[in-house]
Write a structure and sequence with these properties.
- A 7-stranded parallel sheet has the order 3-2-1-4-5-6-7. A 6-stranded parallel sheet has the order 10-9-8-11-12-13, sandwiched between helices.
- It folds into 2 domains: 2-171 and 353-377, Rossmann fold; 188-348, Glycogen Phosphorylase B (Rossmann fold), CATH 3.40.50.2000.
- The protein has helices at 16-31, 42-47, 64-86, 114-117, 123-137, 148-158, 188-191, 209-216, 238-246, 260-269, 284-291, 304-308, 320-331, 334-348, 353-369, 376-384, and strands spanning 2-5, 36-39, 52-54, 90-93, 106-110, 142-145, 165-167, 196-200, 225-229, 252-256, 272-275, 296-299, 312-315.
- Helices cover 44% and strands 14% of the residues.
- The chain is an alpha/beta fold.
- The protein starts with a strand and ends with a helix.
Length: 387
C-alpha cells in the first residue's frame, strides 16, 4: 500500500495549492487500490469514502509555535509507527513534511522556498525551512518540484545533489477553466464590474498588491477597474484602504474568496489578468487564466516566464510605472489582447493536471521499487528545452 498525506487539504473554496493536492491524491486513489490518504479534516474523509484514515494530525490552522512543533513531532513518531505497522511501500506528501528517518521510501513535493526569501513574513516556517527541511529532503528517495525555478532553488540553497529532483508542472482543472462558449451570457454580478483587470491571490506582502494598486492610479485605459480575488491580510485594513488613499476607491473592487466556478467566470470576463508577484514557485492562477483565454500581464521573475512563455506582457514588479504600462498595453489594445488570448490557449496545452498527477504517481511507484533516480536528470534536461 501507499500512504499519502492530505497536507493542508480541507473544504471549499480551495486555493491553487489545494487544487493541486486534490488532483494528485485523487489520481492516486483511482490508480492504486491500496493507497490510503492520511487526513485530519472531515472534508477529506468525505472526499474519498473508505480510502481515508483519520489521524490525530494537528490542523494547519492551529496557530503558534506549538502547532508547528506538534505536526513535526507527529510525523517522526505517529506517522513513522503507522507506516511500519502497515508495511507501506512508500510515503508521499504533497507538501514538504515528512520523516527524518523514513520508515519507507519517502517522496515530498516542494512548491517554493518563500519562507527563506521572506523570513519576516514566515517567522516559524523560515526556521523550519532553514534548519529542518534540508535534512528531511536529503533522506528522500525523490523530490518533486513544481517548477524549474523551485528545483534550482532547492539544489542551490540545500546542496541537494544526491537526491533526484523531478520537475512536474501543475495544471488547471479542465472541467472548470476553459474559454467562454460562443454567445455565453456573462452573469449580472460580473457584468456590473464593466471592463476590469483581475488579480487573484491571498494578499501576502510578496504578492505585491500595494504596488499594483499604486499602478492602477496611473493606468490610463478609460474605464478599466481592478477586481481583487482572495483573502486580505490581517493588517488593520491598510491594504483595503489603500485605493481610497490613492483616490481610486471607485476603481478597485475587493471580491474576497470566491468558488472555483465563480473564479472561472471572472477569468473569462477579465480584459487582463495581472500577476504582480515579487516571487512565485509556480503560479497556478496564471495557468488557469491561460486555459480560460485570458490575456496576461505578469512579473518577469522566478517561475513566471517559465510558465507563461510568450503568452504574457512582462514588467518589473518593483517598478510601479512599468506595471501601469503593461496593464495599459494589454487592457487598452484589443488586437494585442486577441493575440495574447490565442497564445494563452496554445501555451495552456503544456499544462495538464491529470498528466502531472499521473507523473507524480509514477515517481512514487519508482521510489517504492528503489529506482526513483533512474532518468531523473534526463527528464529535467528534456523539460528544460520546453519553451
Amino acid at each position: 500500500m501507499f500512504a499519502l498525506s492530505a497536507g493542508p487539504l480541507g473544504g471549499e473554496p480551495m486555493n491553487g495549492m489545494q487544487r493541486y493536492i486534490d488532483g494528485v491524491l485523487d489520481r492516486f486513489v483511482r490508480d492504486e487500490p491500496g493507497a490510503v490518504v492520511l487526513a485530519g479534516a472531515d472534508a477529506v474523509v468525505e472526499r474519498w469514502p473508505g480510502r481515508v484514515r483519520p489521524v490525530p494530525l494537528p490542523a494547519y490552522s492551529r496557530a503558534g509555535t506549538a502547532g508547528h512543533l506538534s505536526r513535526l513531532v507527529w510525523h517522526q513518531t505517529g506517522l513513522a509507527a503507522q507506516i511500519r505497522r502497515w508495511g507501506a511501500r512508500a510515503y508521499y506528501s504533497p507538501v514538504p513534511e515528512g520523516m527524518f528517518r523514513p520508515a519507507c521510501p519517502q517522496v515530498l513535493t516542494v512548491h517554493d522556498l518563500l519562507p527563506l526569501r521572506y523570513p519576516d513574513h514566515y517567522p516559524r516556517l523560515s526556521h523550519y525551512y532553514r534548519s529542518v527541511l534540508p535534512h528531511m529532503l536529503k533522506r528522500c528517495a525523490a523530490v518533486v518540484a513544481v517548477s524549474h525555478a523551485t528545483a534550482e532553488d532547492v539544489r542551490e540553497r540545500f546542496g541537494l545533489r544526491d537526491v533526484p529532483i523531478y520537475v512536474v508542472h501543475q495544471g488547471p482543472r479542465a472541467d472548470l477553466f476553459r474559454p467562454a462558449a460562443a454567445g455565453a451570457a456573462v452573469p449580472p454580478a460580473v457584468a456590473e464590474l464593466g471592463d476590469f483587470a483581475l488579480a487573484v491571490s491571498e494578499a501576502r506582502p510578496y504578492k505585491n498588491f500595494h504596488r499594483l494598486m499604486e499602478a492602477m492610479a496611473r493606468v490610463e485605459t478609460p474605464g478599466l477597474r481592478l477586481a481583487v480575488v482572495g483573502g486580505m491580510p490581517d493588517d488593520g485594513g491598510v491594504l483595503r484602504g489603500l485605493p481610497a488613499r490613492l483616490g481610486i476607491a471607485e476603481r478597485v473592487v475587493f471580491l474576497g474568496r470566491v468558488s472555483d466556478a465563480e473564479l472561472a467566470v471572472l477569468y473569462r470576463a477579465a480584459r487582463v489578468m495581472v500577476v504582480p508577484s515579487l516571487w512565485e514557485g509556480f503560479g497556478i492562477p496564471a495557468v488557469e487564466a491561460m486555459a480560460s483565454a485570458c490575456p496576461l500581464a505578469v512579473s518577469r521573475v522566478a517561475s513566471l516566464p517559465e510558465v507563461c512563455g510568450d503568452a504574457a506582457v512582462y514588467f518589473d514588479p518593483r517598478d510601479v510605472d512599468d506595471i501601469a504600462r503593461a496593464v495599459d498595453r494589454v487592457g487598452g489594445d484589443d488586437s494585442l489582447r486577441g493575440e495574447l488570448s490565442r497564445r494563452a490557449l496554445r501555451r495552456a496545452r503544456s499544462f495538464c493536471a491529470e498528466r502531472g498527477a499521473a507523473r507524480v504517481v509514477e515517481i512514487v511507484r519508482a521510489a517504492a521499487r528503489g529506482d526513483a533516480a533512474r532518468g531523473a536528470h534526463a527528464e529535467t534536461a528534456a523539460a528544460d528545452r520546453v519553451s
